[in-house]
Write a structure and sequence with these properties.
The protein is mainly alpha-helical. The chain is about 80% helix and about 0% strand. Residues about 380-385 have low confidence and may be disordered.
Length: about 375
């Protein structure tokens, strides 16, 4: 319908590009990241040639492309385009314009995804100081930067600082919006993740249960955000040994995602990974191994061997091999995993340390698939800006 309308008012190619951009955004939120990338790329190239580098629609298409690159694991391309977009915003509007400041946050996320935490922290701390001075600590935009900074600390392996900042974000959003506001619940979900990482499993479980209850009441049991919270609640239950309840939620999330999104959707694959972990905890090793192998093969094909999601799947597949008594296969894969995690994250990152631990211990460390609340917020804010 949009195509029929716009072709009467614009150049045919331009009309098609507007439709492609809108479709790319819709595909992104539906989780079809490769389709979003393909259509966003086509729209961007046409806008760039027809409207010029600095046209607002060209810049919008760049934003979509940057996020699509990130979600398909093309972090270096995302960073290059983020750097280009930031320079354009600075050139057009100046360094202190709100759109330039917003773009610097996007650039920080791209740095973080490539493992350059030093640059990410440098940008986010500068933006945080600016927003506190200009807007105050309790402004929603300032709180958003605090949330991004907490996520950067978490991904860099500094879970103590991530936990402290996440607690602050929850407190500020609860004061601003109330405890049952969706933004506050998203912050609670992130804080629960931080609590799991620092071993505060009871607090993580309490928060995770609260988020699930509130989202069930507000959004319904089948809403994607409710399923996201259920997936993370299953992670909390596994940490405190409530394996049957963890399996219940893990199976529920997988069944819903297969029904709604299909078997090969990235969110379904993530849920399957957690289901495999639940099966392993209940000593259902054959089921666990079959799923873990599927998750690893899918991610290796789609993302490549150095993508963080592939490395998580690799770790869990190693554990499946060990539980099945296939020690030679486990050893070979684990040696490869240690080299990869060391190259991608560095020697002191928790993922590298977990792989080294699994090399010489029988009490294996599984890496849970967290449905990140930060990804939802960052994507929405950037695409709708």
């Amino acid at each position: 319908q949009l195509m029929d309308y716009t072709t009467h008012r614009f150049d045919m190619g331009l009309a098609k590009s507007y439709c492609l951009l809108s479709y790319a955004i819709a595909q992104y939120f539906a989780g079809n990241y490769y389709e979003a990338l393909k259509n966003g790329s086509s729209a961007y190239e046409y806008f760039k040639n027809f409207l010029g580098d600095t046209h607002p629609d060209t810049l919008k298409a760049m934003q979509v492309l940057i996020i699509a690159y990130r979600r398909t694991g093309r972090y270096q391309l995302s960073l290059s385009l983020s750097q280009e977009l930031y320079k354009l915003r600075e050139q057009i509007n100046g360094p202190n314009h709100p759109s330039t400041i917003d773009e610097s946050i996007n650039l920080a996320i791209s740095y973080r995804k490539t493992g350059n935490y030093k640059e990410a922290f440098k940008i986010l701390e500068k933006v945080l100081a600016y927003r506190i001075a200009e807007m105050g600590e309790e402004h929603p935009s300032t709180i958003g930067v605090l949330s991004s900074l907490a996520n950067a600390y978490r991904q860099s392996g500094d879970n103590i600082h991530a936990c402290q900042l996440s607690e602050k974000v929850v407190k500020l959003r609860a004061q601003l919006y109330g405890e049952n506001h969706l933004s506050t619940l998203a912050a609670m979900g992130s804080l629960a993740h931080s609590y799991r990482l620092v071993g505060k499993y009871d607090l993580a479980t309490e928060l995770s249960e609260k988020v699930v209850r509130a989202r069930c009441e507000i959004l319904g049991e089948d809403h994607p955000l409710t399923l996201r919270a259920m997936n993370n609640l299953a992670n909390s239950y596994r940490k405190i040994g409530r394996y049957d309840e963890a399996l219940h939620y893990a199976e529920k999330v997988v069944n819903h995602r297969i029904q709604i999104l299909g078997e090969n959707h990235p969110s379904t694959i993530g849920a399957l990974s957690n289901l495999a972990t639940s099966y392993r905890m209940l000593h259902q090793f054959e089921k666990a191994h079959s799923i873990a192998l599927k998750v690893y093969e899918w991610r290796h094909e789609k993302y490549g061997e150095k993508h963080p999601a592939t490395l998580r799947a690799m770790n869990n597949l190693v554990n499946s091999y060990k539980k099945m008594g296939k020690n030679d296969e486990a050893q070979l894969l684990l040696e490869s995993l240690i080299k990869l995690t060391n190259n991608v994250y560095g020697p002191k990152h928790p993922s590298t340390l977990a792989a080294i631990h699994n090399l010489s211990h029988d009490n294996l460390i599984d890496i849970d698939e967290e449905d990140s609340e930060d990804v939802v917020e960052e994507s929405y804010e950037l695409l709708m800006h």
